Amino acid sequence: MKAFALIPMLLSVVLLSACGSGSQEGSTTAPSVFAGDDINVVEKNEFTVTAKGSPAEGTFLWQRVSGPTVEWTTLEGAEQTITAPDVKADSELVLRVTYETLSGGLVSDDVSIFIVSNNLLPLAVVTQTAPDTLPSVYDNTITLSAADSSDPDENGQIDSYLWKLNDYSWEPSSYSWQENLTIDLDIDSLTNSTLSFSHPLLENNINLNWSLTVTDDEGGVSTTTYDMTLNKTEESLIANAGADQVVNEFDEVTLDATNSNAATLQYTCQWQQLSGNAEVIINPDKCIATFLASDVDTINQLKFEVTITDLKGDTSSDDVFIDVTPKSLGLINDTGMDKCFDNIQQIACDNDDFPRQDADVGRDSFAGQLNKAGKGNLAFDYTKLNEYADEVDDTSTTFSCIRDNLTGLVWEVKSPVSGTVPFTLLRDGQNHYTGYLGGASGASSSSTCPSATNCDLQTYVDEVNALDFCGGTNWRVPTYTELLSLIDYSKQGTDVLIDKSFFPNTPSKTKLGHLRYWTSQTAADGTSLSQSYIIDMSDGNDLAYPKDSTAYVRLVRER
Question: Theoretical Cys-Cys bridge with 250: which of 7, 225, 366, 401, CB 3.0 to 4.6 Å?
């Protein structure tokens, strides 16, 4: 019974074993690969990665997935020995292995290589590169250089520099005139690879202690120190009045002594003028002073001296020359305008939309700075003369002629109303004449003047010269430009565009309906020489006017 029972059981086992064996031979095992455990390594050191694959006898192929670049000897093989790259900071390198089985199955796995940066600290080095000749002296440029500093890393470099003056000490340790003396080196920059400053003015030697800190491209820091001595100078106080200048009259001129130097650092200044036209110095007790260059006719050289005084009471002086040149204002009167206008109203004279108006340029714009010999509106400069051409007081009401101090011309002043024309005195302002000059007959039935025969300009000129009037016998009719120089356009809207305080007895416009005055210039009208230019002194207009008509005249002569 038992035996019977066993026989079927054994048979079952045999059958099962045979059946299982046949199933294994006909199946495929899934491929797998393991790239190994993650690795920590210091930069530039070797490390080894070893992969395992199943089923056996497949092929391995490696590649970089991310992180710094590595150099491979070969990409094939289960085991790879690699040198960790040089990195600027701690980095992760990810490698991937791909395993291909004999039956063509592909599987892959990644491994991380954690690379530790091992930065070598930079080397800080200081050398003095200027001046070429040592020891340095006052006003030399002293240069300390960090160019010899270096980063020992193969691909490293210095990224930044920082200079610092740690300490300084005087020889001897203190000055009797100031216990806590400081030093001002006027350093150009503390963050460049070089440090430059001028050798200061010193009464005693001074020892300096510098530090240089360099930082490399990986944040590594190194510091070194450098000791040096600056030597005392022969003079402890040097005045500097600045460079000579060439300026224009009326310019504001600056006198600058701030480039003076004193071992005490602090000093006071005092300016004075030594030669040339007297100028008014503004703030003469300051190191920066100014003055307004006065009116000149030719180049005028001014000489100024500055005296500086230090904290000990020692002094030093220096001179500067200022050449003042005349502006190109011309030797003719300006228009008399002191206001600027746009299309409809008065505006400020510095308006860019309406530039260079009469009140903004020319002599009148500098009227307040002109050195006048006489009086007159704005730049006009007139002096009153008596019948002998002697100067009289500017306030006098009795005078015969006017000298224009700008042009040098002497002008006739008309005499008061003396009757009704033609029964008037020779120079009565009412008298008017035909426009003939040079001896041509100018008699006209429309003329009215004291002459019983001719009332032309030439007759009048001859009669005035015969009087030796105002000490001269060279009286003549003015040119167009000369007569125009008397007009003051700021008087527009009044009865006459001329200064009646210097040119009184001007007739009323109602006499002839105009205030036309002859000039000596013939107007060529293309057909004849029968017209001369006149200027109407009531409105400033000019006109080619027939010589056989009558107009007023105001004679002129050179001094």
Answer: 366
Residues 6+ apart with CB under 8 A from 9: none
DSSP conformational letter for 492:
T
Q: Where in the chain is the domain with CATH 2.60.40.10?
A: 32-116, 127-230, 237-325
Q: For residue 324, what are the β-bridge partners?
A: 247, 300
- What DSSP line would sit under 247-296, residue for residue? EETT-EEEEE-TT-EETTS-EEEEEEEEESS----BSTTSSEEEEEPPP-
pLDDT, tens digit, 9 for 90 and up, residues 99-110: 999 999 999 999
**Of all helices (H) and strands (E), which one includes residue 464?**
helix 457-466
Q: Residues near 507 by Cβ (< 8 Å), separated by ≥ 6?
A: 429, 430, 515, 552
Residues of the chain under the 50 pLDDT cut: 1-27, 177-178, 442-447
* CATH node for 127-230: 2.60.40.10
Distance (Å, rounded) from C-alpha 553 to C-alpha 518? 5
Q: Is residue 18 classed as helix, strand or coil in its secondary structure?
A: helix
Question: What is the C-alpha separation between 113 and 109, in angstroms, rounded?
Answer: 13
Kindly list the distances between the CA atom of residue 67 and the CA atoms of 47, 84, 92, 345, 490, in Å, as whole numbers in the listed order: 16, 11, 6, 77, 86
Domain with residues 237-325, CATH architecture: Sandwich (2.60)
CATH code of 32-116, in short, is 2.60.40.10
Nearest-CA neighbor of 445 among 531, 551, 552, 548? 548
Identify the pLDDT of residue 320. 98
Question: What is d(CA 413, CA 506) in angstroms, rounded to the nearest whole number?
Answer: 9
**Beta-strand relationship, 46-50 and 79-83:** antiparallel
What is the rounded CA–CA span in Å between residue 85 and residue 98? Answer: 23
Give the pLDDT confidence of 346-360 residue by residue, as tens digits.
988 888 888 888 877
